[in-house]
Every structure is written in structure tokens, then in C-alpha cells.
Design goal:
binds phosphoenolpyruvate, two-stranded antiparallel sheet, alpha/beta, 14 helices, 361 residues, 2 domains, Chorismate Mutase Domain, subunit A, binds manganese (II) ion, elongated
Length: 361
């Protein structure tokens, strides 16, 4: 679907767009104290969860509607814009009634098209920016589907939040970033604003900085980070929240690099290098084309001699030779495996075509 999205963020002036605040609104004092400290740091949008989707019952499930009044107080006293998560139509109606500036859909909502549609229906005819988190599973189609449902309801200001993908057993991340997925989304919709929720990706404090920097280097528009006055005592997601002071340091240490590189003088400096890259890419394509032609010739031989397409021993030899080359030349093992798997699958597909053709009368 062709989306004509109005950006939420002015990339020239507001990058990185900073969304910060507690995982959950717990008490009026906690909400206000955090807001005052973050307003002093000039963040762009204040977050606090009012309704919390929790894995098991009897955990803290959010303060509910009363929290919306606290967010209204934040707006009035600090001037900050505010956002909260909505997961059903009642949440939408209540949030709109209380003039919440931006709504976000959580990962457990994006995963369910019925819930997304219910929210989309509740938003029909309303003019409010919506942020859509990725679904918990690594499914780009489902993420795009949620964007399309909200867009079809008439919402024009849509952004997305990358919060990583469920990956039980992963020791490094609470939710694996799988950067290729947001990168694919950016390539498909270059005007869509994309925010990195480093808190839910990391699930811990010590890696927040590195993930935030990585996101900015990948041209993300901003960050959503959980901030709490006393993180260890937070009622939800205690391990990943940071104090306002630590948050300030974290933002201060970020290197913000040029997002849209179109300076003519600088472009001239790298023109020759880019030209060389283009020529090499062209060579690569020619070589791949040539390789497929040879593959087809072998396919005809296999057809004539009744030999199966997949020859595991040969494939093993090809891959280990490539891995050996990679190791000597600084090419990552994961990359070599992915590259050669892709080439191998394509070769198999070509040989299958050869075999099919031969079957034709
Ligand atoms: C949250 O932002 O606190 C939250 C519940 O996030 P997610 O939907 O990404 O799990
Ligand atoms: Mn949280």
C-alpha cells in the first residue's frame, strides 16, 4: 500500500527526537518528579504507561484512568507533550478525552490484527499522531499490516518504534534487535519516522548507550527510553530503567551524525570512491549471472545422468573454502554463511528450472 505519511518529527531540527519517562505511571509524585527532571533536559515527548500489558496476572497492571489526570498535570505544569500506550478502544476513548498528545500501540497489540483493527476503528475521524511498536515476533509483514490499518482509519501522522523481537534464551538482549527488519522497513517507507526503544531491546542498563548509538548510526530519528527516579524500586521493568541523571549523561554521550548526506562539496570528495563501488557491484552481478549459467550447465548434466540436485559433500566444500577465505580477509562468518546460502539457494532454483523444462514434452 502506498502511504502518504505526514512526519511527526522535523528531521532537520529535532533529531534525535527524545521520548522518555517511566515504564509505568506509579504515583502522582513519581510521574511529576520524573517529568520535571526530563522537562529540564528538553526532551520532546514524555512517556508513561497507564495500562500495562503483563505476561502473568497479579503483576502490577497499571494505575489505569487516574494516571491520565497525572499526565494532564505534566502537560500543564511542564509544557511537555505526553504519550501513553493504548491496547483497546476504551483506552483510546479515555486517552482522547484527557487530551493525550500521542498514542502508542505496544508490541503485544501490534501482534494481533483484531486489536489493531479495534483501535483503528476507534480512531476513525480523529487527528492524533500514532506510534506503532513492532510486533513481539520478527514479522515485518505484521508490523506493516498494523501501520496500514491505522493509516486506513485516516490517521496521517504515523511513526514506528523498534523495540526488538522476543528471543528467549538470548543472554545479550531482552528483545533481539534484528536490525535488518527496521532497515527493511526504512527502505520501504523512507518518510516514516522510526524511534529506537533501547530500554526494551536491552532489558538492562549497561548496554543502553551502545544500542542507542547504533540506532542513530543506522539513521533512526530518535529514542524511547525508560526513566525512573529510583529505578531499582520501579513497579515494572526495574532492571532497564535509569535515573534522570544517568539519562542525561547517556544522551550527552551520543554522537549525532548527519542524517541525510547531500552536501555537494562532500559528495564530490567521495564521488570517485562511490563510482568504484558501483563498478564493483556491477561486476558482482555479472559474476553471479555467469555463475548461474554454469550452474544450469551442471543442471543439464545432472538431468542427463539422473543425479540429484543437492550434493551435500560438494556444498560443504564450497562453504568451507569460502569461510576460510573470509577468516583470512576479515569477512564475518555469519556474513559468509548468509551470502553463500543465498547463492546456493538461487543455484538450486536454477537447476530445478532446468529439470522442469526438460520434463516438458
Ligand atoms: C512499554 O513500553 O513499557 C511496553 C510495555 O513495551 P512493549 O510493548 O515494547 O513491550
Ligand atoms: Mn516497560
Amino acid at each position: 500500500m502506498d502511504l502518504k505519511i505526514t512526519p511527526l518529527i522535523d528531521r532537520e531540527k529535532e533529531r534525535p527526537f527524545l521520548i522518555a519517562g517511566p515504564c509505568s505511571a506509579e504515583t502522582e509524585e513519581q510521574v511529576m518528579e520524573t517529568a520535571y527532571q526530563l522537562a529540564a533536559q528538553n526532551i520532546h515527548l514524555y512517556r508513561a504507561g497507564i495500562w500495562k500489558p503483563r505476561t502473568r496476572p497479579n503483576s502490577f497492571e497499571g494505575v489505569g484512568k487516574v494516571g491520565l489526570k497525572w499526565l494532564q498535570r505534566v502537560k500543564k505544569e511542564t509544557g511537555l507533550k505526553v504519550t501513553t500506550e493504548v491496547a483497546n478502544k476504551e483506552h483510546v476513548f479515555e486517552a482522547l478525552k484527557h487530551n493525550i498528545d500521542v498514542l502508542w500501540l505496544g508490541a503485544r497489540t501490534t501482534v494481533n490484527p483484531f486489536s489493531v483493527q479495534e483501535i483503528a476503528d476507534a480512531l476513525e475521524g480523529v487527528d492524533i499522531p500514532i506510534l506503532i511498536k513492532n510486533p513481539i515476533n520478527a514479522d515485518l509483514g505484521l508490523w506493516i499490516g498494523a501501520i496500514e490499518r491505522i493509516y486506513k482509519a485516516g490517521i496521517k501522522q504515523i511513526g514506528v518504534i523498534h523495540r526488538g523481537f522476543s528471543s528467549p534464551g538470548n543472554k545479550m538482549y531482552r528483545n533481539a534487535p534484528m536490525w535488518q527488519i527496521p532497515i527493511d522497513l526504512m527502505a520501504k517507507y523512507p518518510d516514516l519516522n522510526i524511534i529506537c526503544d533501547n530500554s526494551h531491546i536491552c532489558g538492562r542498563r549497561d548496554t543502553l548507550q551502545a544500542v542507542a548509538q547504533r540506532a542513530l548510526d543506522l539513521n533512526f530519528d530518535g529514542l524511547m527510553t525508560e526513566v525512573h527516579p529510583v529505578p531499582d524500586e520501579a513497579w515494572s521493568d526495574a532492571k532497564q530503567q535509569v535515573t534522570p541523571t544517568r539519562y542525561k549523561e547517556l544522551v550527552g554521550e551520543l554522537k549525532v551524525r548527519i542524517a541525510n548526506f547531500d552536501n555537494p562539496a562532500m559528495l564530490t570528495d567521495i564521488k570517485d570512491l562511490r563510482h568504484e563501488i558501483d563498478m564493483l557491484d556491477n561486476d558482482l552481478m555479472q559474476i553471479l549471472h555467469k555463475r548461474m549459467e554454469l550452474t544450469e550447465a551442471i543442471g543439464r548434466f545432472k538431468q542427463a545422468n539422473n543425479i540429484a540436485i543437492l550434493q551435500p559433500v560438494r556444498w560443504g566444500q564450497i562453504l568451507s573454502k569460502a569461510l576460510e577465505f573470509g577468516e583470512k580477509n576479515g569477512l564475518n562468518e555469519e556474513f559468509i554463511v548468509a551470502l553463500f546460502n543465498a547463492i546456493h539457494y538461487e543455484s538450486i532454483r536454477h537447476q530445478e528450472e532446468v529439470l522442469k523444462e526438460k520434463k516438458k514434452p
